[in-house]
Amino acid sequence: MTQRQLHLNLFVYPGGHHEAGWRYHGSDPDRVVDISYYQELARKAEAAKFDALFFADGPALADNIRYASRFRLEPLTTITALAAVTQRIGLIATASTTYSEPYNLARLFASVDHISNGRVGWNIVTTGAAQAAQNFGLDAHPDHGDRYGRAHEFLEVVTKLWDSWQDDALVIDPQTGIFADDDKIHEINHVGAHFRVRGPLNLSRSPQGRPVYVQAGSSEDGRHFAALHAEAIFTAHQNLRNAQDFYADIKARLRGIGRNPDHLKVLPGISPYIGSTTAEAEALHDEFNDLTQPAYSLGVLRRMTGLELSGHDLDGPFPRHLIAPDPDRAEASRFKLVLDIVDREKPTIRQLLHRIAGARGHWVTVGTPEKIADDIQTWFENGAADGFNVMPPWLHGGFDAFVDHVLPILRKRGLFRHDYQGQTLRDHFGLPRPDSLYATETKRSA
Amino acid sequence: MTQRQLHLNLFVYPGGHHEAGWRYHGSDPDRVVDISYYQELARKAEAAKFDALFFADGPALADNIRYASRFRLEPLTTITALAAVTQRIGLIATASTTYSEPYNLARLFASVDHISNGRVGWNIVTTGAAQAAQNFGLDAHPDHGDRYGRAHEFLEVVTKLWDSWQDDALVIDPQTGIFADDDKIHEINHVGAHFRVRGPLNLSRSPQGRPVYVQAGSSEDGRHFAALHAEAIFTAHQNLRNAQDFYADIKARLRGIGRNPDHLKVLPGISPYIGSTTAEAEALHDEFNDLTQPAYSLGVLRRMTGLELSGHDLDGPFPRHLIAPDPDRAEASRFKLVLDIVDREKPTIRQLLHRIAGARGHWVTVGTPEKIADDIQTWFENGAADGFNVMPPWLHGGFDAFVDHVLPILRKRGLFRHDYQGQTLRDHFGLPRPDSLYATETKRSA
Questions:
Q1: Which residues of A touch B32 (CB under 8 A)?
Q2: pTM across the whole model
Q3: A241 pLDDT above the threshold of 50
Q4: Contact criterion met (CB below 8 Å) for A180 and B62
Q5: Which of A428, B44, B141, B323 has its CA 20 to 30 A from that of A18?
Q6: Is A389 helix (H, G, I), strand (E, B) or coil?
Q7: What is the pLDDT of residue B444?
Q8: Of A69-83, B72-86, B347-361, which gets the smallest average pLDDT?
Q9: CB within 8 A of A39, min separation 6: which ones?
Q10: What is the spatial distance between Cα A319 and Cα A407, in angstroms, rounded to a whole number?
Q11: Distance CA A79, CA A70 (A)
Q12: In Å, how far from its chain's centre is CA A324?
């Protein structure tokens, strides 16, 4: 029996994940909208046999573009351009159920799944940034519960659309003149609280049947959604204990509803600072923190907590008492994460800003390649992770260091593949290819 | 002074433009969802120095997929995958103003314009197919006037979004820590009858500033829209006289509102059947017509005219008297085109079906390479066209024949480029790169 294998995604953030990554001397910020910059990175990640590349998204401009590389090419077009220059690596794009139409989004993902020969994943988000609403004619961002209500129905609609052509609907017989068997192409006739969609999709079923369903929310609504629908979950934890609690909870939810817990991969973020000695790694981490700009970091903290600390002494203690109970925030996973750091570590304001600067609250680990590999193995073998979303502090160098120094150790320990075993992202993640809902109906009635 | 040059687009229709093109022995219908089939075609068209590839679209499945290749990969993802394997050729994708959100569409096009280094055009349509409404929660397709009302405002919004970053907004100075000059990134604060959009776009201004605005409607609303906004117009005419009337009308409209008439290129469709002799070309054309299936063609005619003729003798005269005056149809360009053929040619039903089968009402020309080149030159030099959308009856062979046999004649006559002179689609079409609306404001107030 082969050893259980790690899954590794490269989470691509234009200027790197550290908020000052774009300022680091090894980075290449002039190329943030140059597709060849991402194509080179995709080829590297494929050569390293990573499961997938992962792209975040939100349909509004971040309000702190002055100090950081906080914008990007649109993810679906980006992954399409990457699909064209790679053969095996998976490609995961984030898209919002709150600010898209299901018919349009279903087409885009099905098309990229065809173009990539079955390598696409959809990171399903409801969009946290309230300013998005104003780009779509709404007075206010729908609240958390409403967004998830729409998300559940959105997923039902796009799933039906992806299934609306049975896999064998295309006949293409020039002799008889029959191009498609229209008995195997189904209207979905969906009528719900948020959507009425007739279908069928105007595209044949894609190589994976459906893109891989990825999810990234860790609130109660998010966990419930993930347990029902997700096949991979991207999550943020600062320590093993919290990650274990989350892992156990989400896997138990799957068992509870009769889903195979192996069919949802839990992938925490990890942002590694790698040095040939511990001192060298810590010096690297310090170098990044020295490049942070409080005017930027205080804004990030304000969005996470509601606290305006620009007048305060940055080297004084973090004013925990100023955080007011706020039911709107209580469910937000980033808010909980900040509180957790504050309560455990009692940082100064500046220390907290540095903790957040690393990877917006994700796990930052600093050390030698062996130390990073140990961290990964510990989480992987102790019920905290099925793999990781690797978040390099800067690009491409932060990724190169991981591939050159950490990956060989993981391979030597038998934890990570030497080559791809399959063609599709479902193959890489060990997920089944779903039958069409309508194929099942046909079989049942036959 | 250099001679005025033809513009040539390749209009890519998955199985070829003849409705039975997919059945022709030289075609390759099994590859209609295989991106490499289009990538090979794009490379050929680029080697031939064509201005652009053109992709049609509609957000609903055609209801006659049983007999013909009437579906496609989604166009924006398709052109992105083509951008990744070409360097110079333009890429025009159709997208609907009726069934998209301006913020989402603006992002997608801006992103592909970045990815392609400035080679993108948007074919702006309001969507003619009524069944699309039912994929988007509407009881009925908005009427022609309402669709154009939304289209005008849609264009205003996306134009503002594309202009919302001035060209020099990105600073990217690692020393000072300034990534972008946010004084040069503008909220658009659009409030109109159909849309409220705050902006700015979450992507820097693209290489062309805005994609090339292409338009394809020839109704009164369509012409008015084209005169105001379009930079290229794709149009269907069966004969020189009609094409001249249209050309004169549209250029006069531009002059009337103070636009330079050279800044809108009129590009009729042309579907050529090429043989080394006239008899060979006619035999080729007959071969295609013999492959048509009345069950399919009668459906096309029904959608164009409202007439159900499946019980009729196909070799009897076309029953002109059955066409009832219908104000909803009176403005539809395809309807007028059918009436025009009927009134001029007095065809049998089968003859009319063959005329429509060729290229859904576009100009079909049959003959030797010299004859096709003469046709093109005649239209080009007699006020009927600035170039053409070439619509091969089948792929790839129908395009190869044009490139191998007609293009050399056009080049020998000095009518078509031997190489690209510029990098962007605007360069190929001879169109100016627009300044940002907001840059002009800054200059004015300075």
A1: 172
A2: 0.96
A3: yes
A4: no
A5: A428
A6: strand
A7: 45
A8: B347-361
A9: A81, A82, A85, B84
A10: 41
A11: 18
A12: 30
Which ranges of B346-424 would DSSP assign to H, the alpha helix?
A: 349-359, 369-381, 397-401, 407-412
Question: How far apart are alpha carbons B326 and B331 in whole angstroms?
Answer: 9
Per-residue pLDDT band at A163 (split at 50, 70, 90): very high
Burial B311-345 (b: 16+ CB within 10 A, else e): ebebeeebeeeebeeeeebebbbbbbbbbebbeee
CA dihedral over A36, A41, A44, A46, signed as positive or negative: negative
- For B201, which residue in chain A has the nearest alpha carbon? A61
Q: Which of B150, B163, B17, B35 is nearest to B96 (CA)?
A: B150
β-strands A52-55, A90-96 pairing: parallel
Residues 6+ apart with CB under 8 A from B102: B154, B157, B158, B161, B195, B197
Q: Are the CB atoms for A287 and A409 separated by under 8 Å?
A: no
Distance from CA of A372 to the nearest CA of B (A): 28
pLDDT higher than 60, residue A1: no
Smallest CA–CA distance, residue B194 to chain A, in Å, is 9
What pLDDT score was predicted for residue B446?
40
Q: What are residue A235's DSSP bridge partners?
A: A268
How many other C-beta atoms are found inside a 10 Å radius of the C-beta of residue B432? 11
Strands A387-390 and A7-12: parallel
CA–CA separation, B271 vs B43, rounded Å? 21
Beta-carbon contacts of residue B92 (< 8 Å; ≥ 6 apart) = B9, B52, B53, B54, B55, B79, B120, B121, B122, B123, B212, B214, B425
- Round the average pLDDT of chain A to a whole number and report it: 93
Q: Is the pLDDT of residue A442 over 70?
A: no
What span, in angstroms and rounded, lies between the C-alpha atoms of A87 and A80? 12
Report d(CA B16, CA B358) in Å as an integer: 10
Q: Judging by DSSP bridges, how do beta strands B265-274 and B387-390 pair with one another? A: parallel
The four Cα atoms B37, B43, B48, B50 give a dihedral, to 10 degrees, of: 90
**Rounded to whole angstroms, how far apart are CA atoms B434 and B446?**
20
More confident residue, A135 or A304: A135
Check whether the bond before A396 is cis (ω within 30° of 0).
yes
Q: Note if the bond before B174 is cis, omega within 30 degrees.
A: no
Chain B partners within 8 Å of A14 (Cβ):
none
Confidence at B300, pLDDT banded by 50, 70, 90: confident
Of B112, B137, B291, the CB nearest to A196: B137
Concatenated DSSP letters for B223-260?
HHHHHHH-SEEEE--SSHHHHHHHHHHHHHHHHHTT--
Q: Under a CB-based contact definition with an 8 Å cutoff, are residues A212 and A92 in contact?
A: yes
**Structural domains in chain A, sorted by start:** 7-277+362-445 (3.20.20.30)
Mean pLDDT in residue range B12-32: 94
Given a cut of 70, whether residue B357 has pLDDT beyond it is yes
Residue A152, preceding bond cis, omega within 30 degrees?
Answer: no
User: In this complex, which of A29, A73, A104 lies closest to B114 when CB atoms are compared?
Assistant: A73
Q: What is the total residue count of chain B?
A: 446
Q: Give A331's pLDDT tier (boundaries 50, 70, 90).
A: low
Where on the phi/psi map is residue B111: left (φ > 0), alpha (ψ -120 to 50), or beta?
Answer: alpha
How many beta carbons lie within 10 A of that of residue B68, not counting itself? 27
Q: How far is CA B255 from the centre of its chain?
A: 23
**Rounded Cα gap, residues B167 and B13, in angstroms:** 36
The dihedral through the CA atoms of A323, A327, A328, A331 has a sign that is positive
Residue A159 amino acid letter: T
Q: Do B179 and A65 touch (CB under 8 A)?
A: yes
Least Cα distance to B16 among B358, B388, B432 occurs for B358
Q: Do B62 and A202 touch (CB under 8 A)?
A: yes
DSSP annotation string for B193-222: SS-EE----SSPPBTTBS-EEEE---SHHH
Q: Is the pLDDT of residue A350 over 60?
A: yes
